[in-house]
């Protein structure tokens, strides 16, 4: 009988994102509170000889199925670190927008590592997985075990899972792809520079919903301004969300262009999503719970 293993690759949201400086290697030092949704791509693996990838789903054309796809890059990274790695045939169902600031590709890569770990008897906490994740991309380590966490360094330092109250949100992507490298470049920070006075987000476990809301309101996403210059439509998404009934906070995730709005209840979030969809039927709009 053929074995098919499945993993969900959930979207991530940067609830906060501070840029602390730029390292000598050119990467930016960050401090970010990351949470995950229940919505995402699906990755299946039929273990066997060889390695292949087919991609289907609505955003498959933008994701591509070549060696550049992060599923294959993560597999190559693990192959280089684990002798005789068993692989097989991957099937990726791509539902998330691509180059959207919600870690779709990174989460696909992390799902590939989890599947390969299962097939090869690699324990989930084996450092080889974090190592391969780091080598694949800055956002892959935080996606390996998708729970709300603090992420720092260039993305390689991951704090313990945080017990945050679930947040009711709407994600909106205006279907404009944004290049992460371009947004960081727009910051024009010289290598080795540290920005003084950037406070680390004081996240701790067990925050109440009210404490979390005021903490989030006091912080921001330092990539929002540069992203707005690249994709002015993000300003329209932000202002439409801010005008929606019961929206407590609207902010861009990652390097954009996806924006999230926070609401007090699942019903408020669903109502806002329906209203937005009515006004902008071409946009990608999803009510989600972040945790
Ligand atoms: O690591 P990843 O390939 O996902 O990053 C894409 C680009 O974003 C990098 O080439 C780099 O230019 C930029 N980046 C950065 N600092 C980070 C993460 C990404 O400058 N912490």
TrEMBL record:
Source organism of this protein record: Pseudochelatococcus contaminans
Recorded metabolic or biological pathway in which this protein acts: Isoprenoid biosynthesis; isopentenyl diphosphate biosynthesis via DXP pathway; isopentenyl diphosphate from 1-deoxy-D-xylulose 5-phosphate: step 3/6
Entry keyword set: ATP-binding, Isoprene biosynthesis, Kinase, Nucleotide-binding, Transferase
Protein name as it appears in the record: 4-diphosphocytidyl-2-C-methyl-D-erythritol kinase
Role this protein plays: Catalyzes the phosphorylation of the position 2 hydroxy group of 4-diphosphocytidyl-2C-methyl-D-erythritol.
Database matches in HAMAP family: IspE
Molecular function via GO: 4-(cytidine 5'-diphospho)-2-C-methyl-D-erythritol kinase activity; ATP binding
Similarity-based family: Belongs to the GHMP kinase family. IspE subfamily.
Reactions catalysed: 4-CDP-2-C-methyl-D-erythritol + ATP = 4-CDP-2-C-methyl-D-erythritol 2-phosphate + ADP + H(+)
Active site, per annotation: 12, 139
Gene: ispE
Chain residues that bind ATP: 97-107
């Amino acid at each position: 009988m053929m074995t098919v293993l499945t993993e969900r690759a959930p979207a991530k949201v940067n609830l906060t994102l501070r840029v602390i400086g730029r390292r000598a290697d050119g990467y930016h030092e960050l401090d970010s509170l990351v949470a995950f949704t229940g919505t995402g791509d699906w990755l299946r693996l039929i273990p066997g000889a060889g390695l292949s990838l087919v991609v289907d789903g609505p955003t498959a054309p933008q994701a591509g199925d070549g060696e550049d796809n992060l599923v294959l890059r993560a597999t190559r990274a693990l192959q280089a670190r684990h002798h005789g790695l068993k692989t097989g045939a991957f099937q990726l169902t791509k539902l998330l927008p691509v180059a959207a600031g919600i870690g779709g590709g990174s989460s696909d890569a992390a799902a590939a590592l989890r599947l390969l770990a299962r097939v090869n008897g690699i324990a989930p906490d084996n450092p080889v997985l974090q190592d391969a994740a780091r080598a694949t991309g800055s956002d892959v380590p935080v996606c390996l075990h998708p729970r709300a966490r603090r992420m720092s360094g260039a993305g390689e330092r991951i704090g313990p899972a945080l017990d945050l109250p679930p947040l009711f949100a709407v994600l909106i992507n205006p279907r404009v792809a944004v290049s992460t490298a371009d947004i960081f470049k727009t910051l024009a920070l010289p290598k080795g520079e540290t920005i003084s006075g950037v406070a680390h987000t004081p996240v701790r476990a067990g925050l109440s919903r009210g404490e979390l809301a005021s903490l989030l309101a006091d912080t921001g996403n330092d990539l929002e301004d540069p992203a707005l210059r690249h994709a002015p439509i993000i300003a329209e998404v932000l202002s439409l969300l801010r005008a929606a009934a019961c929206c407590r906070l609207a902010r861009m995730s990652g390097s954009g262009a996806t924006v999230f709005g926070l609401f007090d209840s699942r019903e408020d979030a669903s109502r806002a999503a329906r209203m937005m969809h009515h006004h902008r039927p071409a946009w990608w709009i999803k009510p989600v719970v972040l945790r």
